[in-house]
TrEMBL record:
Keywords: Aminotransferase, Cytoplasm, Glutamine amidotransferase, Repeat, Transferase. GO terms for cellular component: cytoplasm. Homodimer. This is Glutamine--fructose-6-phosphate aminotransferase [isomerizing]. It comes from Halovivax ruber (strain DSM 18193 / JCM 13892 / XH-70). It comes from the Archaea.
Length: 363
């Protein structure tokens, strides 16, 4: 394993840095700009023709990608929900033979997710595995498979697989909407034109110096809160998960609008609030961040240069201008880098955090 890190101290940093390549692999050959259509090597369009709702089941980082995918599916005009795979058995929405259940799992071996997949099959649903591992249990057991093609991920904290999952789910949303309703309300041509730009846009973020200085500046604070709205919400959850996994510091993600309904009680000058602006109702998210700033919290704005949020920000993690359906992925890269540098400053075991496993094969 040691040799596989190449010039990097940790697999996590190597894998964050690989995203220009992994994203390019994920999209390759799957969108035809001439015809304006998405196609997958597997998954014929008729697979989705009779589907009237989609349930995505996943855990951890994959669950955040599933939440992202569910939002995109709904924007494409498809009835969709994401559910934690470990809650599936007790609180899944109604499932029948017109339901597509999508197991989103990097490893394809997570017991909770396999449990959801099996329960979905028993209930008569069509099942689809969105996974990184060919030949994994999820890939073998599901009716259909879509591979995210991110390449091997060794670091316990998932990084590059999140962006690849979100992209596959975005393409899938257009495919399902088109197959099941005849039209998709997603501007897939614009989105895919920007997916093609993502590798070079991610490259711009990789020097990581802004992320490192944010990590340094707020080292030792009491807790870290992440807020976002729309597609920024799963990004906030993922930012907080990454942070707690590898720094062992207290971090939580909230829907920006929900901050005032409870979490605001936790906000003090010792709790930096990382506010993620993905181009959807940003003015409301700015108001929410202002409420935290009024309580003295330092605000770290994750937004494009020149954004209104900078008027209240103490620190800035810049994201390039891109289609709003994708800016959350660029924000995630910045947040991965912040977590990495914060953990590195604390001398944590970044690739193998305490108590965690890359793939959890018990329920
Ligand atoms: C474990 C890992 C997480 C991962 C989750 C789901 O808890 O520590 O990083 O997101 O499993 O894994 P999967 O392979 O199903 O995506």
């Amino acid at each position: 394993e040691e040799t596989g890190k190449g010039e990097f101290d940790h697999y996590m940093l190597k894998e964050i840095t690989e995203q220009p390549t992994s994203i390019a692999q994920t999209i390759e050959g799957r969108y035809d700009p001439r015809r304006g259509s998405v196609s997958f090597d597997a998954c014929e369009p008729e697979t989705f023709a009779d589907i009237d709702r989609v349930v995505l089941a996943a855990c951890g980082t994959s669950y955040h990608a599933a939440l992202y995918g569910a939002i995109v599916l709904r924007r494409a005009g498809v009835d969709a929900d994401a559910i934690l795979a470990n809650e599936f058995g007790v609180s899944a929405p109604p499932i029948d033979d017109r339901t597509l259940v999508v197991a989103v799992t990097q490893s394809g071996e997570t017991a909770d997710t396999l449990g959801a997949l099996r329960a979905a099959s028993r209930a008569g649903a069509t099942t689809l595995a969105v996974t990184n591992v060919i030949g994994s249990s999820a890939a073998r057991e599901a009716d259909e498979q879509l591979f995210i093609r991110a390449g091997p991920e060794i670091g316990v904290a998932a990084t590059k697989t999140f962006s690849s999952q979100a992209i596959v789910l975005t393409l899938l949303a257009d495919r399902i909407a088109t197959a099941s309703t005849g039209t998709s309300t997603l501007p897939i041509g614009d989105i895919c034109a920007d997916v093609d730009r993502l590798p070079s846009l991610v490259e711009e973020l990789l020097d990581g110096s802004a992320a490192e200085s944010v990590a340094r500046r707020y080292r030792g604070e009491r807790a870290f809160f992440f807020i976002g709205r729309g597609l920024g919400y799963p990004v906030a959850l993922e930012g907080a998960l990454k942070f707690k996994e590898i720094t062992y510091e207290h971090a939580e993600g909230f829907a920006a609008g929900e901050l005032k309904h409870g979490p605001l009680a936790l906000v003090t000058p010792e709790t930096p609030v990382v506010a993620i602006f993905t181009g959807t109702e940003d003015e409301k998210t700015l108001k929410n961040a202002e409420e935290a700033a009024t309580r003295g919290a330092p605000i770290v704005a994750v937004c494009p240069d020149g954004h209104d949020a900078l008027s209240i920000a103490d620190a800035h993690l810049s994201i390039p201008d891109v289609h709003p359906m994708l800016s959350g992925l660029l924000a995630t890269v910045q947040l991965q880098l912040v977590s990495y540098h914060a953990a590195n400053l604390l001398d944590r075991e970044i690739d193998k955090p305490r108590n965690l496993a890359k793939s959890v094969t018990v329920e």
